[in-house]
Amino acid sequence: MLDEGYSQSSGGFTGQTAVKRKRAALQILPCTVSQLLSASEVNEVFLLRNCEVNQVSVVGVVREFVPFVTSIKYTVHDMTGPPMDVKQWVNTEAAGVTCTLTPPGRYVKVSGRLQSSQGKRLLLAKNIRCIEDLNEITSHMLEVVQAHMQLFRKAVDVNMNTIASSVAGTVQTYGMCNDGCPQGISPDGLSTIQGQVFSAIKSCSLHEGIGFQNLTRQLGYLSVKDIRNSLRFLLTEGHIFTTMDEWHFKSTDN
Fold it and tell me: Where is the Replication protein A C-terminal domain (predicted)?
């Protein structure tokens, strides 16, 4: 358990810090890209609130990839900050082994180690796995909040901002917004992809709404399958409706 690092130590504060670093080094810590980019670096060691960042995991969408002879560089974006470079080594010596490239628009879970190269942060991936169930995106965000609450004994959101116990006279539950929604989760109950599709439809001011072709062109980093599934969900839940034909959509909020 992550909170085992909070047991009393005869070394006082220094001892507790050492214990926390040891526990963090043995765990794969769920993080967001913004947390990794904002982590402090001391003597080539990355720290989050005096806790060493060793093995981490992030979930995001692949924006682009660049293949090299011995590695592949991915750009992964989780919407919490700027995209982050992910480097995956390719085994060129194993006979009959071919490397499968993950195309842009696919959500992935990356596990690896944070590094710095030429003043730029990157994640050296040990494993990159495509996400088939979009519920895993929400699950990862909840794991981020829970892990950091256990590790630091403070209520934080997914961007490592401390949440006040009382805001405007309203007492908040740890890891919850005023509306009862977990930090980092859309209050509409939409996944990240569904939220992006909904935002694109809602931002269209045309009387007939936005057409499917324009929608896929605008959201070119998403797969057509993901857009279709999101449209089906948004229609069923009453967030959008069709207008002049079944391929033009408009938000019910407009």
Answer: 148-246
d(CA 58, CA 62) in angstroms, rounded, equals 12
Task: Give the single-character DSSP code of 185.
Answer: S
- Nearest-CA neighbor of 89 among 76, 102, 74, 71? 71
User: The domain containing residue 253 runs over which residues?
Assistant: 186-254
172 contacts 156 by C-beta, under 8 angstroms: no
d(Cα 187, Cα 178) in Å, to the nearest integer? 10
64 and 124 together in one domain:
yes
Residue 130: give its domain's CATH number: 2.40.50.140
pLDDT tens digits, 45-101: 888 877 788 889 999 999 999 999 889 999 999 988 889 999 998 875 654 444 678
Domain identity same for 105 and 12: yes
- For residue 172, tell me if it sits in a domain: no
